[in-house]
Amino acid sequence: MFKGRHFDQLIILLCVRWYLAYGLSLRDLKEMMTERGIRVDHPTIHRWVVHFSPLILDRFNRRKRAVNGSQTNRETIISCDMIRRLQERRYIHTKPIRIRQSQYLNNRIEQDHRRIKRRVRPMLGFKAFSSATITLAGIEMVQMMRKRQGRYSYNPSPSLAEQFQALADAF
Question: Which of the residues 42, 60, 69, 158 could staple to 26 if both were Cys, CB 3.0 to 4.6 A apart?
Answer without folding.
Answer: 42
